[in-house]
Amino acid sequence: MTQARAFVLSEELGEPGRPPSAQGTGSPVPGGRKLSLVERVTHVRLTGRHARWGRRLSTIMVLVGALVIWEILAAAQVFPKVALPTPVAVWDSFKLTATKGYLNKTMGQDVAYSVVRVAAGFVGAVVLGVPIGLLMAESKFVHRVIDPFLQLGRPVPPLAYIPLFVVWFGLGELPKVLLILVGTIPIMIISTIGGVRNIPAQRYEVARCLGAKRRQLFLNVTLPSTLPEVFTGMKVGIGIAWTCLVAAELIAASVGLGWLVEQAATQLQTGIVIAGIIVIGVLGYLMELGIRLLERVLIPWRGHG
Amino acid sequence: MAVLSLRQVTLRYGDSGPDARPAVLDRVDVDVAEQEFVTILGPSGCGKTSLLRLVAGFERPTGGSIVFDGKEVTGPSSQRVVVFQQPWLYPWLSLRENVAFGLKLQQRRVDWKRVDDMIATVGLSGYEKHPPYHLSGGMQQRAALARALVMEPKLLLMDEPFGALDAQTRQRLQEFLLDLWTRVDVTVVFITHDVEEAILLGDRMLIMSTSPGRIALEQKIDIPRPRSEETTLSAPFQEIRKRALATLGRVSISAAGITGTGDDGSVGAAPDDETSTETSMETSVDGREVVVGVSSNEAWSARGPGAQ
Question: A304 vs B101: CB contact, 8 Å cut-off?
Answer without folding.
Answer: no
